[in-house]
Amino acid sequence: MFKLTRRQFVAGSTSLLFTSGSLARAAPSGELRIVALPSIFGDMYNALRDAHQGEHKATVNVDTSIREDETAITAILRSAVVGELPDILFISPNYLRVFADRQLAQKLDAFQHNEADWGGNFAPTVMQIGGFGGSTRGLGFAVSMPVVLYNLDLLARVGGGEPPESWEGITALGRKIDELREGNVVGAFMEYDNGGNWTFHGLLNGFGGRILTKVERDIGFAGPEGLAALRVLRDFGQCGQARVDMSRDQARQAFSAGQLGILCTSSSSYAAIEKRAAGQFAIGMRPFPVTAQAGYLPAAGPISIMFSRDPQQQQRAWEFMKFASSVPGQTIMATRTTYLPANDLALKTRQLGDYYASRPNVRALIPALQKMGPWEAFPGKNSVKITTVIKNHLATVVLLKAAPEQVLEHMARDVTDLLPLH
């Protein structure tokens, strides 16, 4: 296990107490050291460890004591200064850049090329999710995608049938629900305050846009795709969201209470929302629309990253990462969490086929796994500040305080000023 030093603790990681051991302490020979987030899925990671140890006779030490990505990043970057890191980290994909830019995340392409039947055992998404700078720096493990939740009872009241497949249809339905003006019901709500601007990425990427240009020196969202994304946000404001500026947690509670007709959120939040709403109304769930041929959805959910530099330790790390993303590993993950498999070959097994057959809303997301891609991040020391700047601009659109065209211009200017080399 891992523990922060007193100096690290005082420096700011006051929310974290590792149970034993130290990031700065060398592990016994042959021991594989893993930090796995989030902590709420500790039982799942331990099940992976036990299954892997049973097959490989390896000693695997898994620390599942950390809940927040930012806390893990702080501890790991400090440990890198003294040359001691875990062999593997499971963390949200938008933080891959933090480690890739510092040359801490190892390239995995050579390991993959040495696998005799990689394509027969792993779907392309496993490599795509962890792509960075033209190479693979992480393996896809678990997937959460941006989704649209529907209160089917309210849909029926306004004559809605099957959930629509376009943003125009979704927001038109939201306006009809909002026009009911019954109690505190709001037609539709888009979570715009996600960490890393995730739902904005979902809109932008679905229209075929990217936050950066291919050379990653300039913004890529200032064109028609970015404008289309902001116009969707404006439309949600017109569905009643402008009247009630809630946080995403408040919006999820409101939906569970039957006070929202449509909610755009993450698929990983569905289980908790469904549990709270049980017995009150029926829920439908669909992935965000992807309207462009080159469009995709940004994958949330942990990826695995290798830090090991020693060749023998790298091979041990690779074997665990490969197992986690294999069909058996994905089955363990999928049946113990609300995530979907990154390796959709696991969905062809009878076990997961039966598992999802009784979960039609989750099953409806499976086709969208073919449309998943990387959740990108901005480079440089201002990366976190940029996401805050974007979130503030998004708020002005969804609250109907400024037109999308005006906000896009200002947002492009403000983000460009914060990027490196500008």
Automatic annotation (TrEMBL):
- Gene3D superfamilies for the chain: Periplasmic binding protein-like II
The record's SUPFAM superfamilies line, in alphabetical order, gives: Periplasmic binding protein-like II
Localization terms from the record = Periplasm
Which residues, by range, are in coiled-coil regions?
Answer: none
- What does the UniProt keyword field contain? Periplasm
Q: Which domain of life is it from?
A: Bacteria
Which InterPro entries would you find in this protein's record? Bact_solute-bd_prot1 (IPR050490), SBP (IPR006059)
Q: Name one Pfam family in it.
A: SBP_bac_8
Q: Which GO terms describe its cellular component?
A: periplasmic space
The family note in this entry says: Belongs to the bacterial solute-binding protein 1 family.
Q: Tell me what this protein is called.
A: Extracellular solute-binding protein
Q: What is the lineage of its organism?
A: Bacteria, Pseudomonadati, Pseudomonadota, Alphaproteobacteria, Hyphomicrobiales
